[in-house]
Write a structure and sequence with these properties.
Number of helices: 9
Radius of gyration: 20 Å
Largest sheet: 6 strands, mixed
Structural class: alpha+beta
Distance between the termini: 52 Å
Low-confidence stretches: 1-34
Number of strands: 16
Strand content: 25-35%
Shape: globular
Mean pLDDT: 84
Strand order of the largest sheet: 5-6-7-8-4-16
Order of helices and strands: EEEEHHHHEEEEEHHHHEEEEEEEH
C-alpha cells in the first residue's frame, strides 16, 4: 500500500504537492502528470464563520435572526434570491451555515475556473440534479463539480473537463453518538442496520475487521467505526459520481475490497505528517456484479482527528490536486461581488 502525505509551504501554510511514500519511508515518484486532467479539491470549515449574537442555535425564526448580523449579510448578498431563500429555510443555524458555505464554494469555483464574473456564475443541474456550470455569455469553460457537507465542513471537488464525472463525500466520525448503540446492540447487529447500503461481502468484511494493535473494548469499537465510515464514505462518493442516490438499485451489487481507513495526522508517528491533514488511501478495489471496475479513480483523505473525505472520478487518468482548506477573506470574498 502507498501512503500519500500533503507537504506544506512554510511561508504560506498552503498545500503545495503530494509526495508518495512506501512503508519504509522512502520517497516514490509523484503520481501527478502535468498534462493530466486535474480535479481541484477544497474544504471550508463553517464553524468559526457567521456567528449569531445570543447564541441562537435553532428555531422557526432562528435563521432569519441569524441573517440580520452584518457579517452574515455580507455573505448572503453574494447569493441569488432563490439561494438565499433556501439557506434561510433551515431550522438549525448550523445547517444554514453549511448551506451558505456550499453555495459560496460553488460560485467561487465557477468564477475562478471559468473566468466569469460572480454575477454570471449561475449554477445549473443535470437530469440527476448534479450541480455544474454550462457556459453562457461568452464563457468557454464548463465546470463539473460535486459538494458534500457534514459536521462543520463543506467539501467541493471540481474539474473543467465536461466528460469527467465527480463525486465527493465528507464524513465526521462521531463515535460519542455511535458508541452507546454499538454497546447496546453489539457490533454485528449495529452493522447490519446498514446492510441495505452494502453488499453481503462488505457487511461481513466490516463485521470481521479487527484493529491491527490490541486495544481495550472502547478503543476497539472506535477503530471499527472508523473502518465502517471509510466504507460508507467510499460508497457515497461513488454513488454521487454516478448522479444516483444511496437507493440506487445496483447498490448492493457494487462493493469495495481492500478498504483501509486513513489515519489522522495525530496517529502517523512513522511519517512526517503536516498540520491537520492525515493519511491518503488510494488503492481500494471496486467490484460490480463480480467484475473488477478499472475505469474509476478513488481516494480517501483523513482530515483532523474525526473527518474522512472520499473522492471519486470517472476517469483513471485524472490528477487529484491536494485538498486546500479555504479562508473566506483570502480565497472567497476577493472573487465575489454582491448581487442586486
Amino acid at each position: 500500500m502507498e501512503v500519500c502525505i500533503a507537504e506544506y509551504n512554510e511561508s504560506s501554510a498552503l498545500l503545495t504537492s503530494n509526495i508518495y511514500y512506501n512503508f519504509d519511508g522512502a520517497k516514490m515518484a509523484s503520481e501527478q502528470n502535468e498534462n493530466a486532467t486535474r480535479v481541484f479539491r477544497w474544504v471550508l470549515d463553517v464553524q468559526p464563520e457567521w456567528s449569531c449574537s445570543g447564541n441562537i442555535k435553532s428555531g422557526r425564526d432562528a435563521a432569519s435572526r441569524w441573517a440580520e448580523e452584518n457579517n452574515n449579510q455580507r455573505a448572503l448578498k453574494l447569493l441569488t434570491f432563490e439561494e438565499r431563500d433556501k439557506v434561510l429555510r433551515f431550522y438549525h443555524i448550523q445547517d444554514a451555515k453549511l448551506s451558505l458555505g456550499s453555495q459560496l464554494l460553488k460560485h467561487c469555483a465557477v468564477v475562478r475556473s471559468c473566468h466569469v464574473a460572480w454575477s454570471d456564475s449561475f449554477i445549473t443541474q443535470d437530469e440527476n440534479h448534479k450541480p455544474g456550470f454550462i457556459p453562457v455569455n461568452g464563457a468557454k469553460e464548463h465546470l463539473q463539480f460535486n459538494v458534500s457537507h457534514h459536521g462543520s465542513l463543506v467539501a467541493l471537488a471540481g474539474c473543467t473537463d465536461k466528460d469527467v464525472h465527480i463525486g465527493v463525500d465528507v464524513v465526521q466520525i462521531d463515535t460519542s453518538k455511535d458508541l452507546p448503540r454499538v454497546r447496546e446492540e453489539g457490533w454485528p447487529s449495529w452493522v447490519k442496520t446498514y446492510e441495505a447500503v452494502f453488499s453481503a461481502q462488505e457487511v461481513q468484511d466490516i463485521i470481521r475487521w479487527e484493529p491491527q494493535q490490541p486495544l481495550d473494548d472502547e478503543d476497539s469499537i472506535r477503530s471499527k467505526l472508523r473502518h465502517f465510515y471509510a466504507h460508507w464514505c467510499l460508497k457515497e462518493a461513488y454513488v454521487k459520481m454516478t448522479g444516483e442516490a444511496l437507493m440506487a438499485p445496483w447498490l448492493q451489487d457494487m462493493e469495495f475490497r481492500n478498504v483501509k481507513e486513513p489515519r489522522p495526522a495525530s496517529e502517523m508517528s512513522d511519517l512526517s505528517a503536516a498540520g491537520e491533514w492525515g493519511e491518503t488511501i488510494s488503492n481500494v478495489e471496486i467490484w460490480h456484479h463480480g467484475e473488477k471496475v478499472t475505469d474509476v479513480k478513488m481516494e480517501l483523505q483523513a482530515f483532523r482527528n474525526d473527518y474522512v473525505i472520499g473522492t471519486a472520478t470517472s476517469r483513471l487518468g485524472v490528477s487529484f490536486s491536494p485538498f486546500k482548506l479555504l479562508d473566506l477573506e483570502r480565497d472567497v470574498y476577493p472573487a465575489a461581488e454582491p448581487r442586486s
